[in-house]
From TrEMBL:
Keyword Transmembrane included in the entry's annotation: yes
Organism: Bifidobacterium callitrichos
Signal peptide interval: none
Keywords, in A-Z order: Membrane, Transmembrane, Transmembrane helix
Transmembrane segments: 12-37, 43-67, 79-99
InterPro entries found in the cross-reference section: AB_hydrolase_fold
Domain of life: Bacteria
Keyword Ribosomal protein: no
Protein name (record): Triacylglycerol lipase
Amino acid sequence: MPGRLRALNIGVWLLRVFCWTTLIATVGLVAAAFAMIPHDWPAWAAIVLSVIVVESIVFWIGIITVYLTSVQLGLKIRVIGVICGWIPIANLVALRLIIRTCREEVRFEGDKERLDASRAAYRVCATRYPILLVHGVFFRDSKVLNYWGRIPGELERNGATVYYGGHQSAASVKDAGRELAARIRRIVDETGCGKVNVIAHSKGGLDMRWAIAREGVGGLVVSLTTINTPHRGCGFADYLLSKVPDGARRRVEAMYNAAAARLGDPNPDFMAAVRDLTQAGCARINREIGLGPFPGIVCRSVGSRLLHATTGKFPLNFTYPLVKWFDGPNDGLVSRPSFPWGDDFVWVEPTENRGISHADMIDLDRENIPGFDVREFYVGMVADLKRRGL
């Protein structure tokens, strides 16, 4: 078990000890009060003070440990814990939620570690050609906060070699495709790998289709898997562009482009990216490069669905009902009819009430979702590439 999980397990154990010993001590002190008060109240008060000091030490060590080491607590439960910690009864409910969440995290991650250890020798993700992960719009590849969450680490633990697209956060499909083509050529030249398996999320799928169709890297790509890509555009985006006043649109564009430039984008273009995501924009792109799969390349697509707005994280919890109104079942941004592309389409239908959002499909929030293990989903996809000799 990794050090983080060991520490988290110790924190959970301390909080459980705190709960049980506080309950036992409270019962004992109440019983002792009848025997010791009033004639021996100083001794009883000293015992009470000692219990409070010991229990406080145990509690604070436990709570600080789980706050520092847990991933699944998230911001929401941490805030609940801080606010409710000062409210009687509510603090007990919050503490129970914290313990239950962390215990489940230890169990789940422990099972994951044991699974990886049991198949380590098989290197199930050691594909013939490396994996290139291509991000979507309005994000950049970063070592500080990986766009793909825990997925790359899981793939690498199972034998995969992983590279990143490294293109800027917002650009037209054409410009992003040109950047990705240059990136692919550089990887192939520097490593001698010959070709790459590409897994592209959201707009990244459109960018890669352009790179293959128009930038001459079709011979360097052995497979392309698009994840929640709007191949036929987002009707919601068309609506927004038609309703947002020009002045407001220009201000948002200027602010985003300025911020992206400060973060390293050489030539960010917010509106070009947005226009290419509309239904009209994707229809134009599909006329230029075609919508069918590429000969000689394994072409696959994946899509998922949220069930309720409340189960999506911000801002998808706001956009989901709007996209549903305009486009039907969706992942918070993209509707089901827009996902299918290539020779094979996988529809991720939620098995629980939560659903699977646009962000869930790249583990953006690092959340363990009941009924859907996103890391294992990617292991399965890449293992299938290996079985195909790719």
